[in-house]
Write a structure and sequence with these properties.
single chain, 0% strand
């Protein structure tokens, strides 16, 4: 399942409309994506946004059940990190998963911090990509250092 498609659907407020397709796509790729940051982000987003925690007995799931689903996703990433020794928790999708967890927990401070960290990381990656591509960032940096007003 493409995480980008799910995220765009959420942003366009169309996730519920396409919910069944996302549900079956997640099931199709669940085994191979289990424990990966991107796979677990998709699973957690499905729980939080589409009310699909994998527990058909509780629908719609309570806020606590959605939070538990996100925590289970984080636990699977931690377990895979321990198994493989890869720094999976340092990856952008893991940061997004922690941000989603703060949102699901309604922890404003943790959400603000996690979202700031996520945006700083995304900006740093974008700048690195642009520099590697030979883009002259001097004009943009000059505007930013001088303020926008």
């Amino acid at each position: 399942m493409r995480i980008d498609a799910l995220c765009l659907s959420v942003l366009r407020d169309k996730a519920k409309w396409h919910g069944e397709a996302f549900h079956f796509a997640r099931l199709k790729f669940a085994e191979q994506a289990q424990g990966t940051p991107v796979g677990e982000l998709a699973t957690a987003l499905t729980a939080v946004v589409l009310d699909d925690t994998g527990d058909d007995d509780e629908y719609p799931p309570s806020a606590q059940a959605r939070l538990a689903a996100v925590d289970e996703s984080l636990d699977r990433v931690r377990a895979r990190t321990e198994e493989t020794g890869e720094p999976l928790l340092d990856r952008p999708y893991s940061a997004a998963l922690r941000t989603l967890r703060a949102l699901a927990a309604e922890d404003q401070h943790a959400f603000d911090t996690a979202l700031s960290d996520l945006l700083v990381q995304a900006c740093a990656e974008a700048v690195a990509f642009l520099r590697k591509s030979g883009v002259d960032l001097a004009p943009a940096l000059e505007v930013l250092s001088g303020g926008l007003g």
